[in-house]
Amino acid sequence: MSRELTPQPGSRRRSARRALREKLVLRVMSRLIVPLILLFALYVQFHGDYGPGGGFQAGVILAAGVILYGLVLGVERARAVISEKVAEILIAVGVLLYGSVGIASMVLGKNYLDYDALGEHGQHEGIIIVELGVGIAVASAMIRIYLAFADLYRTEADE
Amino acid sequence: MSEHLPALQVVVPLLAAPVCFALRNAAFARAVCLAATWSSLAIAWTLLRQVLQSGPISYALGGWPAPLGIEYRVTVVGAFLLVVVSAVASIVLLYDRGSEQQRLPASRHYLYYATFLLCLAGLLGIPITGDLFNIFVFVEISSLATYALIALGRSRRALLAAYSYLIVGTIGATFFLIGIGMLYQMTGTLNIEDLRQRLPDVLDTRTVLIGFSFLVVGTAIKLAVFPLHQWLPNAYSYAPAKVSAFLAGTATKVSYYVMLRLIFSIFGVGFVFATHRFDLVLMPLSLAAMLVGAIAACYQDDLRRLLAYSSISQVGYMTLAICLANVQGLAGGIVHTMNHGFTKSALFLVIATFVQRTGSSSVGSVAGLGRVMPLQGIAFLVGGLSLIGVPGTAGFVSKWLLVLGALEKGQVWVAVAMLLSSLLAVVYVWRVVEKLYFGEPVASASSEDGESEAPGPSGSALWRATPTALLIGLVILLGIWTEPSAEVALAAASELLGVAR
Which residues of A touch B60 (CB under 8 A)? Predict the structure, then answer.
């Protein structure tokens, strides 16, 4: 759809991108940092019900890890981790996970999203699942947006 | 399960959207979408019957009771809007052969259905929620989906129309949010019922007055009240055909509901009309909209722009009802949401069929089509008569109630202005009807080929005519069998004004 809108990439941009990949410090450091970012995202995700954090923040941090990976090592490497199609499906899965908690509490006889229906520790378990849904949806949406924009400037030289 | 209907009303389309998105197949997505819209129509209908029998229904989301948690509150006027929105969505969705008018490649058509469902979920959420901030959230959901839907239009200008609507709509939403913030600052609550009880203590503060202004201006932008209507003609004329039919029948109607809620449920007639004489602003604007919109419609060469300007004129009738602030006038405004919604959606579908045949949407291009496509011609004629307000069509009922309301208030000149606007409607409807029946057909190659008709004239034409026929049938039915819709509207108006019937 946006193909005809694609701006012609200037040679400066192309050389800048190649240069980013050839910077040794950037490449090594980002390879070191990306796992830590992903780990931190998981911490924020699952610690969200006791401390600061939660699904949205965790999703953004996780996506930031993937985006950094893609920026330094090339979009294709990021796409190999998570393709557009997978990202899109995960967006839907995240929302459906959230909604299914609501449906489950309705089926179990309480109001929509009333976590008490899920059992003794329902409030705790319910919020964990809901936040997981938020995290998945936000992370994959951010990555999908990044991939969409990264594609705008893709040229043969990048592939 | 029936006690969960208020939640299901929003949850069904909201969760059907990601299902469509994950299926990645247009045929499956269409089936899911149809099932979701028709079941939300069934839910809305059930809710309306329940409300009429046993009064407002309250549903505490997450089990948290009302002032603290988010409350879904089904009222008569809300349930009425739910039926209008879901009915228009269900019927318009049947009209599905216009998908070639989209910019999306066929492999990504499922995105259209997902966006449509999100838009529907937002529009259904607004009338059902009892929480002011929740209204803002749903306005944003439906607006974001609407921008995307408009941008799907085949013409390049659709992008520009969607973008300018995005800018204007975002300003409107921001104003709305600022207003909510001010009310929250003064009262400490977001629940509409709670606000109604707490506001009287602080009504004379400047913060509340400014909050009211922000809320009303924000809503007026979405409602396309006269000087704030600039986004509407472009958005309606460049969006895909189905989308303009859907939006014309729903989006402004739901904004009208928000306006009603703000003025009558939250701030109250005393504050708005007695203390601050808001009617001195809104009344001239309504009259200007009625006349200027109709005059502008008379000068349009594009059929869809003509209908869009006519919509601005019809919004004028609805805001006029707010100024009258009596049961009959307000009932006229409320029932007009349904009557005009069905009429305008039907007309947009008819135009879409014409456009598909001739490849052009100018008034001249339909010359002689009334004889070639008799059913569509009659549909346009009936829809046009309903826009004018001829007895026997739905448009008459609402205008009649409005006139009664105006006369009850002793404002004869308002009735005269309405008559004048209706006469202008005769002009712009007649321009098209004259071309349809008395114009010489343009002997262009495309109309002879009939590229859309040729393969299966009976099958595809009939299928395409079904939704139009349904809507036009409703327009005639509501025009003849006026009791039910008028009764519900009168009940809704009494509920809003807080008077016993």
Answer: 111
